[in-house]
Design a protein that fits this description.
This protein is mainly alpha-helical. The chain has helices at about 5-35, 40-75, 80-85, 85-120, 125-130, 135-165, 170-180, 185-190, 190-200; strands at about 1-5, 210.
Length: about 210
């Protein structure tokens, strides 16, 4: 019997690719173009802010797709997380890095919105900016650092995703399950062989699971 999670994997991978690629392109291409095209700090902030604002809804959709796909894959691979040695640790690491990337992305947008309002020529935006005054030069420096942090963190998620792919190799699954089953905590409870059987029944070695 074959188990496939192609739709979930596609959401997970395409969403992550867009999140990483868009943030990297923005940090290099968009910010670089704004710096070269504008003659003053205010114009630079205005051009860059317009580009990032246009990308925000697409980025939000990409992040949502990635999270939906990731949650589905986590559920589909719950047996491997529990019973294959090393998968639990890499899953926790991936969750931590993903959380950091989400936090950096959210704070980048909050700070970016403040810069957008402060540099806008629209009188209503100027009024909103006056309610939350910022040092534009300092805010732009902080924003530039954050905009580089996002692709760095999402690259970390990509690396951990590649590790998960390696851990899905049949020989890695067999080795990880046997090591987990032989660990003192498992064998002391008399559940080692039962763990192996449960994992095999739920799509581990001997069955193909595309998740």
């Amino acid at each position: 019997m074959s188990e496939r999670n192609t739709a979930l994997r596609s959401l997970h991978d395409i969403g992550l690719a867009a999140w990483f690629g868009g943030s990297l392109m923005g940090a290099i291409g968009l910010n670089g173009a704004a710096n070269r095209s504008a003659d003053d700090e205010m114009s630079t902030a205005r051009i860059a802010s317009a580009g990032w604002a246009a990308w925000t809804p697409v980025n939000a959709a990409a992040i949502g797709a990635h999270l939906v796909g990731g949650a589905g894959l986590l559920g589909a691979n719950s047996a491997r997380v529990a019973y294959q040695q090393g998968v639990g640790a890499s899953t926790v690491a991936k969750l931590v890095v993903t959380g950091a990337a989400l936090a950096a992305t959210a704070y980048t947008r909050v700070l970016g919105k403040k810069v957008e309002l402060a540099s806008s020529l629209n009188p209503s935006d100027a009024a909103k900016a006056a309610e939350h005054p910022i040092n534009l030069e300092q805010a732009q420096r902080q924003l530039a650092l954050l905009q580089w942090a996002v692709p760095v963190l999402t690259a970390g998620v990509l690396v951990l995703n590649a590790l998960h792919g390696e851990q899905q190799r049949p020989e890695q699954q067999r080795l990880g399950v046997m090591r987990r089953a032989a660990s003192p905590l498992v064998t002391a409870g008399g559940t080692g062989l039962a763990a192996v059987r449960r994992v095999r029944e739920r799509g581990m070695p001997g069955r193909h699971c595309e998740a």
